[in-house]
Amino acid sequence: MLQLAWSFLYWYLRPLIKWFLRRTTKLCELQRICYGVPSGAQRTLEVEFSLENSRCAEIKRLISDLNQASESNKLDANGRSIIHYAVYTVCRVKCIDLHIHSQFTKSFGACVQQIWGYRQLLQEVENLRKTSYDSTNPNHEEKLLLLWSLLKPDEQLEARISKQWQEIGFQGDDPTTDFRGMGLLGLENLIFFAREYPKAARHVLSHSRHPNYGFVYAIVGINITSMAYYLLRNGTAKTHVYNACNGIPSLKLFHIMYSYLFFEFDKFWINEKPKNVMQFSIVREKYEKGLKDSLADPKTILRLNFHVDEI
After folding, report:
1. Which of 63, 64, 56 has its CA nearest to residue 19?
2. Neighbour-count burial of 224, counting CB atoms closer than 10 A to its CB (0-12 exposed, 13-18 middle, 19+ buried)
3. Helices 57-71 and 102-130, interaxial angle, to 10°?
4. Among 25, 78, 145, 291, which residue carries the largest CB count within 10 Å?
5. Of 214, 202, 203, nearest to 150 (Cα)?
């Protein structure tokens, strides 16, 4: 109740506070953030908050335009012109001299790239998640067979429908049904991890066969896809993304984050020494809580650190 009352009071007094600081510092809120807050997630998150809470009609219209551009995947093709439009609009509305405050235009433009690049990345990830695996699509089938060859390079797959799929952690003879929840995104994540970090992926696969702490590799991998997706969707991953990428984040950045999450979960699982695989949900929740606590720090960046020499 107290927090709700404070939030209401702050919202009511916010314009007055901004006016007072503008008069005393001769700088608008966005300038104060860009000049006074270190670059990275902390600055970008504060810029994002300032824009979202603006009561200016032109700023609201700008945000709507940027949302539409990111959701239409236009930032890559027209990124420079869109960023210039955003910077020019804010400088005009806030009466900021572009020549005197050239550093502001660079810093603010970088924040705009990160904020709406994140939205665009989310849209790309969402599109993949919504794409169902189609066994009649040759491209989908090719990707599935690629996953097998990456994880089991020395073993020939005897048939498309085979119990061999269970060796890499699918539930049955046909893996296609396991992609229902995360669609093609789950498969793309598994492939990226196995292709870009083959030693690490086989390290995790070997742990999945542990006599005491084994788990189903592919199913857990798809579950980690779900975790990564929801961290991205609810904004928890913004800290990492804003710190890891200075410009527009690509789908590759999401795949790298997934690879980190999968590898680190494997270590966490082994360290927890679960009695059996039925404790997966408990261990997963504990792992995710620690991850969220870490991402609450604006300085956090999830760095890949694959130590697999002990295999």
Report:
1. 56
2. buried
3. 40
4. 291
5. 202
Same domain, 161 and 270: yes
What pLDDT sits at residue 311?
39
Is the separation of the CB atoms in 50 and 30 below 8 Å?
A: yes
201 and 56 part of one domain: no
The mean pLDDT values, 10 residues at a time, for the chain of 311 residues are 57 63 80 94 97 94 94 77 93 92 94 95 96 96 97 94 95 93 97 96 93 92 98 98 92 97 96 90 96 96 73 39
CA dist list (Å): 121 to 19, 118, 174, 298: 35, 5, 30, 20
Domain for residue 50, yes or no?
A: yes
Structural domain boundaries, residue 55: 15-130
Same domain, 168 and 48: no
* 101 and 170 together in one domain: no
Place of tokens 């990564």: 228
Do 69 and 211 reside in the same domain of the chain? no
Total-model pTM = 0.91
Q: How much is the pLDDT for 85?
A: 93
Nearest CA-CA partner of 89 in 119, 110, 120, 65: 65
Residue 104 lies in a domain: yes
Place of tokens 């709406």: 116
Residues 117 and 203 reside in one and the same domain: no
- Count of C-beta atoms within a 10 Å radius of residue 179: 22
Q: What is the 3-state secondary structure (H, E, C) of 213-244?
A: CCCCHHHHHHHHHHHHHHHHHCCCCHHHHHHH
Q: Which of 36, 39, 30, 34 is nearest to 246 (CA)?
A: 39
Shared-domain flag, residues 98 and 48: yes
